[in-house]
Amino acid sequence: MKFLLPKPLFQLCLALILAPGLALAEVYKQVLPDGSVIFSDQPAPGAEQVEISPVQTYKPPPIPNSTSNRSTRNDDKSDARHYDELRIATPEDDATIRENAGNVHIEIVLSPALKTQEGHRIALYLDGRVVAEPGRSTVFNLKNVDRGTHQLQAAIVDARGKPIKTSDPVTFHLLRVSVLMRPRTGQ
Question: Higher pLDDT residue, 117 or 94?
Fold first, then answer.
């Protein structure tokens, strides 16, 4: 099976060849005298084998589970029992926020108070990533959050940054005006 490709489509073809389904196949490249390039899965006279590197993938880190302690140490488990309540009060789950600047105000409910003498701090996760330096505040103000659906979660972390207790995740939808949504004038 052979394909003739014009020069401008060379990179597109190469990207398609690197698709996961074709990653295990042998691929051969042949340049014809007129400069056109042929890619094939069968060797031909003058063709050279193309080295295909593995496809790069990314798996985001998991959001800490609200029922697990992520630690097998007994003192971490007992630390988690010291906190009766950890939840995100604002925004509410499935809330829609209309904020053109992308600012999001977050309030966390924690009971009893944070045990700062033991190095405990509050971390805030947005879409699985820590978005604020862990600290003692239960109020966070995020700026310039992208439009779309996001997931928030709070965690009490120890001095090493390991989660002790996590809140249930809260999903919110941020709406920001787009230049594509401007009303048409002159109609």
Answer: 94
